[in-house]
Amino acid sequence: MSQLFEFISRHRSFILFVFLEVLCFRMLIGSNSSWGVRYFNTANWYVGTILGFSNSFREYLGLREVNRQLAAENARLNEELTRLLQSDPPKAPAGYRPDSTFASRYQFTLAKVIDSETKMANNFLTIDKGTADGIVPGMGVISATGIVGKVQYCSAHMSVVTSILHSRFMVSTELPASDEIGTVVWTGEDIGEVKLLDISRFKNVSVGDTAVTSRYSQVFPPGIMIGTVSNIESPESETTYVIDLKLSTDFRNLGYVYVIRNYLLEDMEKLKENSEK
Amino acid sequence: MSLRVALFYAFGIFICLTLQVLLLRNLVLFNYAFCFLYVGAILTLPPNLDRSLYLLLAFVVGLILDTFSNTPGLHAAASVLVAYLRDFWIRRYERKAGEELVFLTLRRIGLFPFINLFFPLIFVHSAALFLIEANSLNLILHTGIKILASSLYTMLAVLLWQSFLKY
Prior knowledge:
By secondary structure, chain A is α+β, with helices and mostly antiparallel strands. Chain A has helices spanning about 1-10, 10-30, 35-40, 45-60, 65-85, 100-105, 265-275; strands at about 105-115, 125, 140-145, 145-155, 160-165, 170-175, 180-185, 195-200, 210-215, 225-235, 240-245, 255-260. In chain A, a hairpin with a 3-residue loop joins strand 3 (about 140-145) and strand 4. The termini of chain A are far apart. The longest helix of chain B is centred in the middle third of the chain and has 24 residues, at about 75-95. The mean pLDDT of chain B is about 80. Chain B has one domain (about 5-165). By secondary structure, chain B is mainly alpha-helical.
């Protein structure tokens, strides 16, 4: 008996080694050791907390990719929303049934702003998509917060966009609250403000009303946010207001924008040309 | 072993485990090279430590790693194996070199003896780990590349870690 204990004592580390290895393989094979299943995996509260902490860092590093995915998803949702709104306009009379080609005439392409100028009298943006992605001059550009501008020049992989902060940029604008349509121009003073002209003095306009793109705009789908009314002047000698709009888009930190392609734009322009002859 | 030395090693193990869990688990190079820094922490524990205690320590450290990677027993098996082999290996080394090793840090034993001493053990660890994980010899070439790349990577990481230590 004493020899046995002596043997165990002499070889205790070997016995422990074999025991531990057997234990490990029992756990590896799994099912038999319930305590192993219960405690030694990532469902453990402590382990989960630490992994969550580690993951929060990784989330931060992954924000760029997440942003891109969200922007792409937004482009898809915007397109869908415009198509649905166009195929069943909320204000239309009951009998109106638009053509499906007409309803789905807008296509949204995601682009990233790589340069944005705001300090000049005529401001431009540069985006990272060009003719290779189907972008041509004349297309409208919007962002998640509202209207941005219109494509001016294109190379194969870049485009220059005239922003709304450009002296010759005009866009047909609607005030849904007073049901009036006017034109927005930029006076070149403040990059957060544009002027809305041609709104009749006999309509009711109040500070805080939203201004959106009108249904007469060829380039933009109706209802894209432009800004909110911040100041109303009514000169005695005129029949229209001079309204200051606070732009909803901050041009100093634009990230992703959506370029809008109107499939029927060419057709419309051709029709107009013909009717003018 | 004084408290100071014990704390030094405990802190080393803690640092290695933290790095392993939070950082190195995600730093896999080319899908082949995995870094197992914690094995360095196990291997460089002082050789005069009680062998049974040492095996248990290796088991616990391996098990903690396993808990984080949902592979119960895998890391533990590999680290218990190298922990068991280490003593024979160190004794063989001591016989050949004719000197007794007390501290197994890079500064005490020098770069080439350090690599000489630890690379085979790290290699055995990686080999055991990946062979147990593969559980067959089907993808032996793939596993072989993984073993070699991981042991080199781990060796580099251990050297880097050791060069930050004061002793």
